[in-house]
Amino acid sequence: MEPRTTPEIGGLGHSVKRKEDPRFIRGQGTYVDDVVLPDMLYLDIVRSPFAHATIKSIDASKALAIPGVAAVITGKDLAQYNLHWMPTLMSDTQMVLPVDKVMYQAQEVAAVLATSRYIAADGIDAVEVDYDPLPVVVDPKKALLPDAPVLRTDKEGKKDNHIWHWEWGDRTATDKTFQEAEVTVKEDIYIPRIHVSSIETCGCVAHFNKVTGKLTVWMTTQAPHAIRTVFALVAGHVGLAEHKIQIISPDIGGGFGGKVPVYPGYVIAVAASVLTGKPVKWIEDRMENLQADSFARDYHMTAELAGKKDGTVTGLRIKTIADHGYTDAAANPSKFPAGLFHICTGSYDLKAAHVEVDGAYTNKPPGGIAYRCSFRVTEAVHAIERITDVMAHEIGMDPAEFRLKNFIKPEQFPYKSALGWEYDSGNYAGALKLAMQKVGYDDLRKEQAEKRAKGELMGIGISSFTEIVGAGPSKHFDILGLKMFDSAEIRVHPTGKVIARFGTKSQGQGHETTYAQIIAEELGIPVADIVVEEGDTDTAPYGLGTYASRSTPVAGAACAIAARKIRDKAKKIAAHLLEAHEDDLDWEPGKFFVKGSPDRAKTIQEISLAAYTNHPPGMEAGLEAVDYYDPPNLTYPFGSYICVVDIDKGTGEVKIRRFVAVDDCGNIINPMIVEGQIHGGLTMGLAPAMYEEIQYDESGNNLNGSFMNYLVPTAVETPRWETDKTCTPSPHHPLGAKGVGESATVGAPAAIVNAVVDALWHLGVRHIDIPITPAKVWKLLREKGVSE
Amino acid sequence: MATIKVKVNGVEHTSDVEPRLLLVHYIREVLRLTGTHIGCDTSHCGACTVIMDGRAVKSCTVFAIQADGRDVLTVEGLERDGKLHPLQEGFFQEHGLQCGYCTPGMLMTGAAFLESNSAPTEDEIRHAISGNLCRCTGYVNIVKAYQYAAQKMRKGGA
């Protein structure tokens, strides 16, 4: 799409340099740990060394004797106010501080308040806790066995560790496709527990003013408005009312889903500030972040695909056990306990599909939040893209040809999937063909054949994913009852400058720039004249926040609609100024003019001034608008990725030689920012595919609880990503945009696994669970009798 | 308590500090220079990187008392006389940052590195920043920002 505006205006399609960068490159951002208030106390947390244990006693006397320690807070203290438990976003319950037992290693046990962070750390070392260990359950499959110890003894009458059963699709029709199938394939696919590890950890500064009764919390949250409402609902009984709660989400050092939930530390800090009347700062360290904050994935899937010998796929079945840890604290829309996992039919025209998911409790921290992906979409994409590849190999068809044969065709959109989604638009073959051309697919296959003849291991893997983002239409999407609309409020000042506020919250996505570009596109006001604010619940309109790639699809749409409301009013003012009829006016970015007389024109800046100085009789003064946008449908970004790997037979090391990513996110607001999002997303797809995994031993000890052994990729491991794009606009979004933040994280892992399995299929390897470590590959090679 | 004299961004500071106080906390909490960030406890992430006597160091792994008598440069000291360091300019021009949290560390690592290697290859740049983690950019545009700065510095733009 060619830009309609000049670079000076900077509307859609311009790679405008980011408005947020001047402060960040000077170290002048304001992140939560930069907030310091007078007389502030520091909070640190005593954590459990055991994964499951009864708390026999907590002795705080030695801690309280340390000069500078102000207080020690335990579950019993909070229980007096009924604040020791809190609801999760999935209507389960989670401990703030335990009264009688702990449920995972690193769980919060008590909190120390002190005058410095060093004294607080001394304090937690001095708190003595006497535990009585209980049997530990770490494997969700064992957790669901009849003889497993029941973990949630707090739930009256609970006799097992089963949380919920969810299923979707037509079981009978699906079973029929399997009965009639000429070929079926089946694989167990595990996506391990991983952690978003944003470089900034979580934290807050809570300040309760006893005189005004107002609570202000600066916190690392992706959804400040929802948090305010949750705080009001949870703590209403102790006098916190929503009009006296202000949540400020300052600059956020990466979120990726990990800053959506309410963690106990936030609540303890708020309670501590209310109790002491002093500001309280809580900043977790990396080990706390990696051991106690919510986790992603942990899906044990069994996927089956039915089809014909000619390569036509017909039916899909997936059964899953979801390990949620000790509570279901996922951040899914209320009606969807397994998120949008039923996007798992992917890019393919399937006759029927059926999915089942069972949630299980284990002695682990809460799981099931995002890792830069919209509500379980990565799990779904991984399942379908892996099982598709297995089928292609099984019948001896090239995986690219297999996909091209089964893709939903462009003329089938809007397309109703076998699991009920209405895909808005797509051209899947277009993206795959471009990726194949860019990577030189046919030549690579020839090279692979030559290398295989010489005993060398080379593989080519494809992932042709379909995403589902922009939650969501209020008919189906809510979190704790709050409908998943989002909002924009735009004010044009008399001199034609703008302030705009949103219900979302950037954590690096560049909203200050891209929202300004949408306003620039719609009103012709230069980006330089527009200020964008987010994250202060006292000033911004209500919205559900930024996660699941929803900012552009939802708040971006609100922004365009609000700007169009302003333009409608501006047109009336222009007609008044030009003494012309509204219908006789035409618009070009930045001005209205009389049709056929381009010099009889009023610029948006002249109109803005008139809105305050010379507005038409009978019209309200001012030039501003608000829009709460309820999307009519979700958006469906897609893409095709091709990964080329070489495998070292001696060490098992997988070397990614090439990685070509073709993305289609509809119309693009800022190409530079979109490309940057894809680079980052690909790297967060690489990470779980090759390096990252949170593992537990049988006693529930976290084995990857610091950056010593949780391997976030560095620049050395990260391949030199090659990106390209196709553009298939969304037909229902006001700008034709779809959202892009997570596509690459969703699509990349399957391309990498498919490449590795492609290199090893002839040896009898059908599937490898991520992360694909050298040790795993080395062991497989030895098992298959491959020598160096 | 120990008394230390440290020059930070050209300004001499004399402070009484606990021997256990980390340099990063001294910079952030005593001097209130909050551009230097903390991202881990194990010297892996590099968000706290500063330059001490010309060498890039992770200030979470240095005690404030070890900085006694030394010259420390933080991100706040990179801009001189209202003129951005070529690396700061590079990060802006090449979209080398997203959330901005790792950026100060990436800038300080780079400022020291480019002093010792004015014409680095891409591999050399990638190894130079391998002690600094970024979760947003996939490193692609950080590499480009380094290349932008190196070229500008070779042309005498520094």
Describe this structure in words.
The complex is a heterodimer of chains A (788) and B (158). With 788 residues, chain A is an alpha+beta fold. Chain A has 3 domains: 21-29 and 486-629, Aldehyde oxidase/xanthine dehydrogenase, molybdopterin binding domain (Aldehyde Oxidoreductase, domain 4, 2-Layer Sandwich), CATH 3.30.365; 33-134 and 220-232 and 254-283, Aldehyde oxidase/xanthine dehydrogenase, a/b hammerhead (Aldehyde Oxidoreductase, domain 3, Alpha-Beta Complex); 296-471 and 633-783, Aldehyde Oxidoreductase, domain 4 (2-Layer Sandwich), CATH 3.30.365. In chain A, 28% of the residues lie in helices and 25% in strands. Chain A is globular, with a radius of gyration of 28 Å. By secondary structure, chain B is α+β, with helices and mostly antiparallel strands. Chain B folds into 2 domains: 2-77, Ubiquitin-like (UB roll); 86-154, Orthogonal Bundle (DNA polymerase, domain 1). Chain B is built from 5 helices and 5 strands, in the order ββαβββαααα. Chain B has helices at residues 23-30, 86-93, 103-116, 122-128, 140-154; strands spanning 2-8, 11-17, 49-52, 55-58, 71-73. Chain B has a 5-stranded mixed sheet, with helices on one face. In chain B, a hairpin with a 2-residue loop joins β3 and β4 (55-58).
Précis, in short:
The complex is a heterodimer of chains A (788) and B (158). Chain A is of the alpha+beta class and 788 residues long. Helix content of chain A is 28%, strand content 25%.
